[in-house]
Specification:
Layout: E1 17-21, H1 26-37, E2 41-46, H2 49-62, E3 67-72, H3 78-86, E4 95-98, H4 117-138, E5 143-148, H5 171-196, E6 200-205, H6 218-226, H7 236-239, H8 241-248, E7 257-262, E8 267-272, H9 282-296
Parallel strand pairs: 1-2, 1-4, 2-3, 4-5, 5-6, 6-7
Antiparallel strand pairs: 7-8
Helix pairs in contact: 1-8, 3-4, 4-5, 5-9
Organism: Micropruina glycogenica
GO molecular function, one term: oxidoreductase activity
Pfam families: adh_short
Length: 302
């Protein structure tokens, strides 16, 4: 699917380091491309380094002046997250885009740390990664952390004593909960940054209804699968615009949630997105943060 929106105008990111998780396809690839075109040194943090290197080669061919490197990261495995983070401790990180994710599994599956797979991949791994890299983010001047939400987050219902959905699991609920958690994480991270004078800005973004690798057949399969519904869908490039806006635009408000503002929030230009109910509760934000620290065993600085 071709891009329809006018490309975003963002300031030069030359000399700045950006880490984009899940950058080998879809929204992550489009985000890595946009930040690279703006001059950033981009790390494609991916589960499959071979696939990541293919993407990096494509991006280098398109923009030879850019720097795109590949590093292995499986956000479902917290030990793999630690290994990845160790390589960046002591470095300055200007942009951390927490995009990696899976759409769901047919049955409840668990990770090596016994966490529910979707929550671990989409949320727990990113929470831990940010905690481990927070000093590297603080070393930058107004670093940006961007979490990936979804319009599906509206259906999320987080139980803070059962984040791993051990009592009641469904594929749809696991995905919705993981995306709601990511939105709430960004908002609470911003509160901690402001209170602790960390000097970083946190944002959440969602791509609307975009054609990505999570859909059967990807770009090629969507027209056959959805027919006329493609008229209200976005390309991955257009879907990435809210993410790129949060990562690089001076107009992005700290703690804000952004997404498409046309067609009921599934497509269109970037604007403020409505927050799901739990994400509007300060008490719920704090409860999620505390529960996640307990579940993962990783704490942010006090």
């Amino acid at each position: 699917m071709k891009d329809r929106l006018t490309p975003l105008t963002i300031p030069s990111r030359k000399g700045r380091l950006a880490i984009v998780t899940g950058a080998s396809s879809g929204i992550g690839r489009a985000t890595a491309r946009a930040l690279g075109l703006a001059g950033a040194d981009v790390v494609l943090a991916v589960r499959n380094p071979d696939k990541g290197e293919q993407v990096a080669e494509q991006l280098r061919a398109e923009h030879p002046e850019g720097t795109h490197t590949v590093a292995r990261l499986d956000t479902a495995d917290l030990e793999a997250v630690r290994t990845f983070a160790d390589a960046y401790v002591g470095r300055r990180i200007d942009m951390l885009v927490l995009n990696a994710g899976i759409g769901g599994t047919r049955r409840r599956e668990v990770t090596p740390q016994n966490h529910e797979l979707v929550m671990a991949t989409n949320y727990f791994g990113h929470f831990v990664l940010t905690a481990l890299l927070v000093d590297s983010l603080r070393a930058a001047s107004r670093a940006r952390v961007v979490t990936l939400g979804s319009i599906a987050a509206r259906a999320g219902r987080l139980r803070f004593d059962d984040l791993d959905l051990e009592r009641r699991w469904s594929r749809a609920q696991a995905y919705a909960n993981s995306k709601l958690a990511m939105i709430m994480f960004a908002r609470e991270l911003q509160r901690h940054s402001t209170a602790g004078d960390w000097g970083l800005n946190a944002h959440a973004a969602h791509p609307g209804w975009a054609v990505t690798g999570m859909m059967p057949g990807g770009d090629r399969g969507v027209p056959q699968l959805l027919g006329g519904a493609t008229r209200v869908m976005q390309s991955a490039g257009d879907g990435a615009q809210p993410v790129v806006f949060c990562a690089a635009s001076r107009q992005a408000a700290a703690g804000g949630y952004y997404g498409p503002i046309g067609m009921f929030g599934v497509a269109g230009p970037v604007g403020r997105a409505p927050l799901p109910r739990q994400a509007r509760s300060a008490a719920a934000l704090t409860a999620l943060w505390q529960a996640t620290e307990k579940v993962t065993g990783v704490e942010f600085p006090r």
